[in-house]
Amino acid sequence: MNHHDAITTCIPRLRRYALVLLGDRHRADDLVQDTLERALQKFHLWRSESEIRPWLFSVMHNLHVDQYRTQPRHLDPLDTLGFELSTRATQEDALTMRDLLQQLSQLPDEQRSILLLVAVEQLAYKDIARILGIPIGTVMSRLSRAREHLRRIQEEAAPTPHLKVMT
């Protein structure tokens, strides 16, 4: 597989990560485009013995930090993000997905990034550490804090049942 094909196969994953990271379809597309341009310009820096996907995410992360962090972030409505479920979604599935995306948007960037790279992109801790330029221990502690933070957000969002006393 040539390098153009290898990069092309990663585009859907890059786009999915950018969508959840930024919460805005247009900004996500811009970030993916910038990532692809930078990757093609800097392809000589990729070590061919390693997997290309973590390297592309590293390029994307660096661009995000350099160019996009200062811009305000908001979530588009779920149906405009282009997420597809592997089976036909019910209305409840769509609401659950919308709620999860909204809850993820409440996490700090460094926690959301690690949670997405682990849970969605299924990258190894060592690859995430390399992508983000941090030690593996920091990856694990941020992941733990992200999971705990998300759990608290979900608990706060859970409806409290109101029981009516009948006499």
Explain this structure to me?
This protein is mainly alpha-helical and 167 residues long. Helix content is 68%, strand content 0%. It contains eight helices and no strands. The radius of gyration is 18 Å and the shape is elongated. It starts with a helix and ends in a 10-residue tail after the last helix.
By DSSP, the count of extended strands is: 0
The major beta sheet can be summarized as:
none
Task: Name the helicity range.
Answer: 55-70%
Overall pLDDT level: 80
Q: Extract low-pLDDT stretches.
A: 75-81
Distance linking N and C termini: 74 Å
Percentage beta strand: under 5%
Key features?
single chain, 167 residues, mainly alpha
How would you summarize this macromolecular structure in one to three sentences?
With 167 residues, this protein is an all-alpha fold. Helices cover 68% and strands 0% of the residues.
Helix and strand topology:
Blueprint: H1 3-22, H2 25-41, H3 52-68, H4 78-81, H5 91-105, H6 109-119, H7 125-132, H8 136-157
Helix pairs in contact: 1-2, 1-3, 2-3, 3-7, 6-8, 7-8
